[in-house]
Amino acid sequence: MVISLRKARTLIRKALEKGRELGLKPLSVIVLDAGGHVIAFEREDGAAPGRFAIAQGKAYGSVMLGMAGTAQMQRAEAQAYFMAAVNGVYGGQVVPVPGGVLLRDRKGAVIGAVGVTGDTSDNDAIAAMAGIEAAGLTGEI
Amino acid sequence: MVISLRKARTLIRKALEKGRELGLKPLSVIVLDAGGHVIAFEREDGAAPGRFAIAQGKAYGSVMLGMAGTAQMQRAEAQAYFMAAVNGVYGGQVVPVPGGVLLRDRKGAVIGAVGVTGDTSDNDAIAAMAGIEAAGLTGEI
Amino acid sequence: MVISLRKARTLIRKALEKGRELGLKPLSVIVLDAGGHVIAFEREDGAAPGRFAIAQGKAYGSVMLGMAGTAQMQRAEAQAYFMAAVNGVYGGQVVPVPGGVLLRDRKGAVIGAVGVTGDTSDNDAIAAMAGIEAAGLTGEI
Amino acid sequence: MVISLRKARTLIRKALEKGRELGLKPLSVIVLDAGGHVIAFEREDGAAPGRFAIAQGKAYGSVMLGMAGTAQMQRAEAQAYFMAAVNGVYGGQVVPVPGGVLLRDRKGAVIGAVGVTGDTSDNDAIAAMAGIEAAGLTGEI
Question: Least CA distance to D49: which residue of chain A?
């Protein structure tokens, strides 16, 4: 299953709406395909200029490792040098915290990932899940 | 003047519509702010996975040099080693061809750039301009 | 459609056999998935140590641009600075010559790419196509 | 002694079979020569796309340092900044955990390395050793 641009748009729009509803800081949301390549990205007015790279890093590490942000954070806390090394082999593009969410199809295969950044990592993940559900997809935090 | 996410969305949507209207290949469109940082990006279904980097390269070089794609291309054709050197100092992120369009405010100050890729460079620029006009902005090809 | 490891193995084995049959120099063959990530690679005895990167570069550029080696070479010959710039945005991983072959499914969607290196670019492409046909896939040189 | 492609194939095939026998997650296996260059690699169906880089990082660090994964991990735990610095000089390509296995000839000289990734680091090393023994080589975990 391939994530269409139409679904990616819905996902981003709804994740941002969730952020407004909860009164979160300005968010940035990215949707990557199963190869870790960008389908769509939006940064809300008022967000810091460097948010693209953080959103991408959360989602990119999730796809490349097949491991969502929460699991990456646990590994980073247990074995910091391992996640540092993983970051080396992926060109420094991995941000191992919640807000990186794996997207799976009905059979469980990874079809892409979402990265949200701007508020706390946990709130970022809540906004991501709201968008994922609105787009009819299944997310793994 | 700052480009709002609302304007960036309109710009991208209308650029993609122009591509459909003209029967172009699947397009990818990026909008950068005055610092060269991503505000929004969309890649149409069927576009090659690497299109983000090319769209970004067209727009990034435009902002960083204050020179749109056509002028960059002329410089590249007249003095290839200069643009190669420029690419070195900007980390290889400059793609000096049409489809990179500068955005200016009424006083002529650069407020960002658009990058479109997917069809011929000239058609990419046409789609970019359609989006820019629909968003009420002024573009320099 | 996803390229299985089983198919990738058949493809590589048959491409190498073709090279032996034609008396080519030692070959190296890579198979990438639709996101440009390595599924399998083999380097024949006697090949130079750096062949992995060349095989990967031929196949990676093909996937990322959605353009096979022959088309990349034509673009490089017509507009050298453009392909140099493309190489910049893809981290110097693009080798724009024949031997990079796109793999498509029945609907024409890109499902991956093959990269062969070791002999002349044209012979590399012949070996690639032999492997691709033996694996029941469709290649675009 | 040079590792032939024939031996590398046997090694990979048997390591993957061991993984299936033990019910491990999908594995990826790389074989590098004495210069740290890729001879062969295979990624099983269902493995995350980024597994090549991790397999390579485990094996590359082993060859370049002449120190297998377990010894690298001990050094990383005792002196994290040293392994971080080592990673800097090797371009971020070192992943210092078990699953990186040194290959030695009868006189003890390093002739290459194997990298396995996909399950726990310890299980990765078990699969690597099964492949190494099947290929008639001697491994150091």
Answer: A64
Kindly list the domain boundaries of chain C, sorted by start residue: 7-140
Residues 6+ apart with CB under 8 A from A3: A31, A33, A39, A103, A111, A112, A137
**Best residue of C77, C83, C86, C89 to probe chain B, by most B CBs closer than 10 Å:** C89
What confidence tier does A1 reach under pLDDT thresholds 50, 70, 90?
A: confident
Q: Which residues contact A12 (CB under 8 A, 6 or more apart)?
A: A29, A31, A40, A41, A42, A131
Task: Select the residue of A35, A81, A86 nearest D49 (Cβ to Cβ).
Answer: A35
Round to whole Å and give the CA distance between D60 and A105.
Answer: 34
Q: Across all residues in chain A, what is the average pLDDT?
A: 97
- What are the distances in angstroms from CA C106 to CA B61, C35, C56? 38, 18, 24
> Which of left, alpha, beta for A25 (phi over 0: left; psi -120 to 50: alpha)?
beta
- Residue D131: half-sphere exposure toward Cβ, Cα within 13 Å: 38
Q: Return d(Cα C127, Cα C99) in angstroms, integer.
A: 8
- Strands (E) in B1-137, as ranges, are 28-33, 38-43, 100-104, 110-117
Q: B5-140 belongs to which homologous superfamily? A: Haem-degrading domain (3.30.450.150)
Q: Is the ipTM of this complex over 0.90?
A: yes
φ and ψ at A39, to 5 degrees? Answer: -95, -50
**Mean pLDDT confidence for D8-16:** 98
Q: What angle do CA C43, C45, C49 make, to 5 degrees?
A: 60
Beta strands in C49-134 (DSSP E): 100-104, 110-117
Q: Is residue C108 within 8 angstroms of chain A, CB to CB?
A: no
Contact with chain A for residue D87, Cβ under 8 A? yes
pLDDT of residue D106: 86
* Phi-psi map region of B110: left, alpha, beta (phi>0 left; psi -120 to 50 alpha): beta
d(CA A54, CA D69): 30
B touches which chains (3+ CB pairs under 8 A)?
A, C
Assess C1–D contact: CB distance below 8 Å, yes or no: no
Across the interface, of C33, C37, C41, the residue whose CB is closest to D40 is C41
Please state, rounded to an integer, the average pLDDT across all residues of chain D: 97
Q: Which residues in chain A are closer than 8 Å to B39, comparing Cβ atoms?
A: 42-43
Please report the pLDDT score of residue C75 as a whole number.
96
CATH of range C7-140; options 3.40.50.300, 3.30.450.150, 3.40.50.360, 3.20.20.70: 3.30.450.150
pLDDT, tens digit, 9 for 90 and up, residues D21-66: 999 999 999 999 999 999 999 999 999 999 999 999 999 999 999 9
Q: Can you read off the two tokens belonging to residue B88? A: 């070195």
Q: Which residues of chain C have pLDDT under 70?
A: none
Task: Give the angle subtended at the CA of D114 by the CAs of D108 and D116, to the nearest 5°.
Answer: 145
Six-digit token pair at A97?
A: 């915290």
Residues of C in contact with B76 (CB under 8 A): 81
The Cα C111–Cα C135 span in angstroms is 14
